[in-house]
Amino acid sequence: MNFTVSNAKVVFNKQMENYLEVIQHTYSGENNEKYELAFDIENTKLLDCFLKTPIEIGWVEQSYMYKDSCYKMILKILEKNHNLIMLDVGQQDLPFPGDKISNRIDTYILELTTSKKHREIQIETILPIQTSHSRL
Predict the structure, then answer these.
(1) What is the pLDDT of residue 17?
(2) pTM, 2 dp
């Protein structure tokens, strides 16, 4: 079997619109109080709002590739684009000041100087769980 793993993940964040935050896939990227909820009736409503996306709506991932490496992702969720400039493992685990801006500049230069025929956009449509489940 051939499995594809996304470079991004959608996590619950009580400080964001629709409680959705798109972050680069890491193992410890969401260890923070803003990603936590106390279990009570009011918070179950917030979590329900968040869970509607994977269960009822789905999303589209666009991975921008250069030399078989993803350098940028755009996730379209609820008619909103979430842009990610990809960081390497070291930049994720131990970020230095300027890492993110440096990668944004590198991406901008890459897209200006590299012809489109050397870049690839891979599009993946993530179906809602209800739709996916009904197909089985």
Answers:
(1) 76
(2) 0.68
